[in-house]
Amino acid sequence: MKFYPENEIVPEKRQSEAFLIRPLQVSDVELDFQAVISSREKLLKRTAGRWPKPGFTIKENLADLEYHEQQHKKRIEFTFTIMNVMETECLGCIYIHPLVKVLKSSISENDITSLDISDYEAWITFWVTPIAAEQQLDKKVIEELQNWFSKEWAFSKVTLSFGPRPSTHELELVEKAGLKERYSFQTDEGSLIAWELH
């Protein structure tokens, strides 16, 4: 399956009154590291305990950012940081992956072939820091992503997921946003649900 049309431009940023979404860069390492560490409990739950591992260092975070920046430039997958408007604080991250790649890591090939998947389908996840969540920034991010992907991106379909075992708060977010469920699978790590973002 093809991920993103070769002849289409990849949007570079999205500005709102509350935050700025732009590509994650290695120069963001310190601000990103602070956001990751402050969100460690949430991220461990989201990744079934895989990341960030105990003793996670800024050097390891730099390696992660180098990888994400290169993948973004090669249009293999896209990673965006969520910054405050002054770009002095990282509020979270957005990850845009090929749908099929994500499904291959979660379900069987037979299950994948039974799905109606077209070219240029994306699977999106995002997280915000605990402080940003208290300010309902995650709700605002979903609203911004709905507008952004409907107006500026060239994906045929976009789904949003919070990983295995979405929290009650995350389920409330998608319900309030009026998102319809597109995929639901039982995996070794729990229930994996994705909703139609666009």
Would you write up a description of this structure?
The protein is α+β, with helices and mostly antiparallel strands. It has one domain (14-196): Gcn5-related N-acetyltransferase (GNAT) (Aminopeptidase). It has 8 helices and 8 strands; from the N terminus they run ββαααββααβααβαββ. The protein starts with 13 loop residues before the first strand and ends with a strand. The model has no long low-confidence stretch (mean pLDDT 93).
Strand content: 25-35%
Q: Roughly how much helix do the residues carry, as a percent range? A: 25-40%
- Assign the CATH class: Alpha Beta
Strand order of the largest sheet: 1-2-3-4-5-6-8-7
Number of helices, counting only DSSP H or I runs of 4 residues or more: 8
Q: How many beta-strand runs?
A: 8
Q: Would you identify the regions where 5 or more consecutive residues have pLDDT less than 50? A: none
The CATH topology is given as Aminopeptidase
Features:
alpha+beta; 26% strand; 198 residues; 8 strands; 8-stranded mixed sheet; Aminopeptidase
